[in-house]
What we know:
Elements: H1 6-20, E1 40-45, H2 49-60, E2 66-69, H3 107-115, H4 117-122, H5 128-141, E3 146-147, E4 152-157, E5 163-167, E6 174-181, E7 189-191, E8 205-207, E9 221-225, H6 229-240, E10 245-249, H7 267-272, H8 278-290, H9 297-304, E11 309-312, E12 319-323, E13 326-330, E14 335-338, E15 340-343, E16 347-349, H10 367-370, H11 380-383, H12 402-405, E17 408-410, H13 416-419, H14 429-447, H15 449-458
Helix pairs in contact: 1-3, 2-14, 6-9
Amino acid sequence: MAHGNGLARLEERLKREMEDLNLPARPWVCRKSNETRPDYDVIVIGGGMLGLSATAALLFQGVTSVICLDRAEQGREGPWLNYARMRTLRTPKTAVGPALGVPALTFRAWFSAQYGTDAWNELDKIPTPLWMAYLCWYRKVLALPVRNQTNVTDIAFCDNGLIAVSTMGGAAPLTARRVVIATGIDGLGQPALPPVAGKISRRFYAHSSDMVNFEALQGKRVGVVGAGASAMDNAATALEAGASRVDLFVRRAHLPDIDKFSGISHEGLIVGYVTLPDEIKWKIMRSGYDFPVPAPRESVLRVFRHANAHMRLGSPIVDARENADGLTVSTPHDEVELDYLIFATGFACALDKRPELHRIAPLVRLWRDSFTPATGEDCAGLAALPDLADDFSFRAKNPEHAAELSRVYAFSFDATLSHGKLTSGAPGLTEAAQRLARGIVSSLLREDAKFVLQQFHDYSRSELLGNEWSPEQVVTTANTKEATP
Length: 485
């Protein structure tokens, strides 16, 4: 049940809390008059959960010349209303998300203001559409500067130390001192497809991140490759749309059932992971390949409540061919006739496959450039991730590019190996955004150190007016030639 003007009262509470915390901080970044001024101090690419939290954190720190760019129309940013086909988020409802230390900014406060405490107590997990509605409110109530339907096509370093960001159809590139790439789960790469996908026409398959026309699958035989949450969500959506049969092709002999990361999900890991030795980081994230995160129980139940759902364990698709009626896919055990195939096979970090990163990609230091795992612990997926600095900025393969790359930040899922699971969901988002903002603030301050020093010398407002005492109260000694206020 909606609670009247509860949201308006929450917004008044938010205003008071931010005033109590002196948020946002007053603007402080130097505006240089003797050099070419950028359009913005910081451009954030991506207006989803990560981009909004990064933009807000920067504004809170007094970095006010910021713009956030997103290719989607307003209200459709991120995966939530696009290809996120789960009914609820997979994280606990108590995760503070992008609240940045302000209680009135939490999802809990937003939800309770509208539906009441009893509804919050009864809530199990956050419905996906409600999470998107919360993010839209977050953007609105903080007046975040987001420009929608703006697709970034190129990022280039300028001779004057600025970064030029070109957009599709833009008259001229936007310039900035810093650029944050906050493009979510596919941030620095592309959907991962197995080689067998290359053997069939695009009309017969989709990746789970595509906008699949599930209504067209009514009465069809559908295959889904994968065993994770996304695979279950896509299989369930196909079944609910009326697919005649859905087969899940799972390469493992058993479904993953233990979430190892839940066992170490605590503030110590959120805050301190970035300081761990590289070999420990690698071992933790490498274990994610041996013990992948299982699909939530409710997602699995959503699939197998349908009698026409079938799971094929130990059955990777090793071949596929088109025929008159659709597809024939082969596993090590048999052949299966399908009308359509969905690959729920995740994403792969591949900077060179992103058109907007084609200038940056050859310069970035990846984990394979800086770390050699122990025998038997190789992992191509991890090796392809960027080896990021402690503030999320790129490191360079060669020293001559270090200064340029230190001005670009990878605030996406691909930061996981360097920073932990901060950018992969809501639980660590506040720490991630504040860490990023602190890094950018420190970087801008170092760059402007001479101007700050000059401001120090130029500041001349006296705290004393000269009338705080009378002349009779001044005692002159032999060593005092003149008493001055």
